[in-house]
Amino acid sequence: MEFNDQDSEDVVIVGAGIAGLATAVALKQVGVRSVVLERSDELRTTGAALSLFPNAWIALEALGVAQKLTNIYHPFKRGYITNLENGTVQEVSFNRLFDKRNVNGARTVHRKALLETLAGELPSNAIRYSSKLSRIETRTHGDSSMPILYMEDGTIIKAKVLIGCDGIHSVVASWLGLSEPVHSGRFSVRGVAVMPHGHELNNEMHQFLHNRSRAGVTSLTDTEVYWFLTYPSTYSEEEEMRAGDPKLIQRKVLEKLANFPPMLLEYVKHSDLTTLSWAPLMLRLPWDLLFKSLSMGNVTVAGDALHPMTPDLGQGGCSTLEDAVVLARHIGNSFLKHKKIVPMQMIEALKFYVKERRWRAMALITGSYIFGRVQQGGSKWMMSFIRDNLFYRILLKRMADFINFDCGKLPYMNSIKQMDDDHNKIE
């Protein structure tokens, strides 16, 4: 197959989740056209919510959409972590925990709202639905190899840059040689409760620990509450839950929360069943990121395709938004310099992106796993001592400092105009 620049896409993004849409918006900000391929026939907005910490809001500001969400969702004031087995309560002040310069703080947002906000920034033809990737090949073009995408419907798409944002079981990550994520040994259920007469959370986050399980609630709006439960499970229960029946999931959660505060059970009972989601908690082994190639030629990955992690630090979505900004910045810098996407230069741009993200992704995966193990390590005296006296009092602030990360800004389109003006002046 001959490769012709004129019939190829500049950037092809696989997956219209948070990673894919955020990357497309970031590229648009730097003047780069992209096409997003989504296997579903519409935007997949199902699911509950996610907490976004200061690093995520910095990224959303770079994408130009932060204010559209902060106008709806309020920041947390404080949080409480209660060990139901020994009665200890740890209070967390989010104002003290995170950098005060980031006025957006930490907030929980609907997943649907985040996706629709990002999608609303893109042209109507930027997302191609019902486009399922079957396989990837490469063809030599000058001094570089260009990705060729073969879709299940027989369509063939040629790309100058390919970015896999296709989730945990990523086709693109597999093509790069990354191993499949591994099971952490725990499972998670999430949902949104609808309380027509309001709730009493007052912009607070509450978490409860009991018998190696962890449950929590946070306010979304004045009438909605986001809740979650993470727990170890048996194989038989896993098979039963995989059926995805929301009423079954709700009933199982209520059984598991029998020894938790009644407030939590009340929220689960008032859940919008369409928001319930159950999933095994997966992670990529950190050394896989260290020893494997995260880019190959003009192909790389971002989001869960790059760094699936457990949700214990609340950094899955946050780090995904960081990825989008960092990746678009390196692609954008090359684009600004050459006034177009130059395939050979994209190889170097993706290498810079990988270099910037590799160690942070490894640290977040490791930190999230350790945080989860410590919190859900049971009630034996040694684990309780480490958790209550060492972890919460000393290490939590250090972890917050690491989370409070600035992914940087994007080069803007006015930079292109300035370069043109400078060039005209020289002539």
Automatic annotation (TrEMBL):
One of its GO terms (molecular function) is monooxygenase activity. It comes from the Eukaryota. Keywords: Monooxygenase, Oxidoreductase. Residues 10-333 form the FAD-binding domain. InterPro entries: FAD-bd, FAD/NAD-bd_sf, MOase. Signal peptide: none annotated. Pfam families: FAD_binding_3. Belongs to the 3-hydroxybenzoate 6-hydroxylase family. This is FAD-binding domain-containing protein.
